[in-house]
Peroxidase
Amino acid sequence: MATAKFSVLLLLLAFLICMADGQGLKVGFYKKTCPKVETIVKKTMDKVMAVAPSLGGPLLRMHFHDCFVRGCDGSILLNSTQNSQAEKDSFPNLSLRGYQIIDRAKSAVEKACPGVVSCADIVALVARDATVALKGPSWKVETGRRDGRVSISTEALTNLPSPFSNITTLIQGWQQKGLSRKDLVVLSGGHTIGTSHCGAFTNRLYNFTGKGDTDPSLDSNYIVNLKKKCKPNDQTTLVQMDPGSFKTFDKNYYTLVAKRRGLFQSDSALLNDSKTRIYVKHQAEHFKSSFFKDFGVSMVKMGRVGVLTGSAGEIRKVCSRIN
Ligand code: HEM
Ligand SMILES: *[C@@H]1O[C@H](CO)[C@@H](O)[C@H](O)[C@H]1NC(C)=O
Ligand SMILES: *[C@@H]1O[C@H](CO)[C@@H](O)[C@H](O)[C@H]1NC(C)=O
Ligand SMILES: *[C@@H]1O[C@H](CO)[C@@H](O)[C@H](O)[C@H]1NC(C)=O
Ligand SMILES: *[C@@H]1O[C@H](CO)[C@@H](O)[C@H](O)[C@H]1NC(C)=O
Ligand SMILES: CC(=O)N[C@H]1CO[C@H](CO)[C@@H](O)[C@@H]1O
């Protein structure tokens, strides 16, 4: 009798701990099994970022793309096979790069503790370290994710937000992932670093509604600038999203959006909802900004989306293929 009561109590306790951790994730999950993992990943990233800081953008973006499709389960890293086309080879992957950096970090980690650390966790750690290397905020990354065994190209199209989305579609898409309007406006701030292909926004410059017009929600002086960089139908030229400081993680994204200079319709759309608009204006206008702290909080939240934990999934040996 007493033992039964005790086991119920234990079960309840285990359940509560699980809930508080965000479905089994926790900071320092590998403390006993791979105590050096974060140091090893950081060392790899420090080396990479010292010579190729432009990889910071795609490596931050990679965690986002992983989490929005089948949860943060490393499915973005899987190669296509003969029978199935993977997320990697879908249209929105365009310009995602840096897969070899994940592989490099994974190899280094495998040397120290083989078969212990998931590729999904490495992606999450790399996103943080990339942000820090570009002078952005740091946050404590929860670990304990397991790797998925499935990656389907078409799921990237249906789950990833499009740069042509309006605010209603964006809010709905984020809500479906359990993320709020605040998370949306905060994490869009990731666009303070990196570059975009012209194709993601030229519709706003040349033929917005099919009448040879421009997007009225984009600053007309800015349009003149952008037209110099992107000719109609140019899909390949790269443009800095936060011109002048695209290799520095700062709060300037909000200054741009507030001035109607957000590059994508999805950036400008943040001015079309009262809550996201207030956040944009606040970050733009106040010297003392909460953005850095908010970014860490929302990244941790995004890092919990749809994760596999416990004995679900696997720990991949090589990040680009299932075991
Ligand atoms: C709100 C929904 C979002 C949309 C519609 C969106 C869309 C895009 C698009 C179209 C690009 C340009 C890709 C290219 O043409 O090369 C881009 C780049 C980027 N995005 Fe987002 N994004 C969103 C949210 C996020 C989030 C949540 C993050 C991370 C926290 C993020 C981080 C980045 C970064 C760092 C780049 C630059 C990549 C590079 O330098 O290659 N984005 N995004
Ligand atoms: C996955 O594809 C990349 C790029 O094509 C290649 O370098 C890598 O070796 C592939 N991985 C596996 C396990 O075949
Ligand atoms: C937002 O976009 C969706 C999908 O394209 C569309 O159905 C909806 O009418 C748009 N909403 C507004 C307010 O423009
Ligand atoms: C603008 O779009 C309309 C409708 O899609 C098309 O008929 C027209 O040729 C386009 N104009 C230019 C300059 O591309
Ligand atoms: C914002 O809303 C206005 C009016 O409803 C609309 O004309 C405009 O296209 C919207 N802008 C964006 C970027 O969604
Ligand atoms: C980096 C990468 O894997 N890019 C692929 C994205 O998807 C297209 C197909 O839509 C491939 O051609 C690219 O190689």
In short: The first strand starts at residue 26 and ends at 27. The pocket of 2-acetamido-2-deoxy-beta-D-glucopyranose (ligand 2) is lined by residues 79, 318, 320-321 (CB under 6 Å). The chain has two domains: 10-159, 167-299.
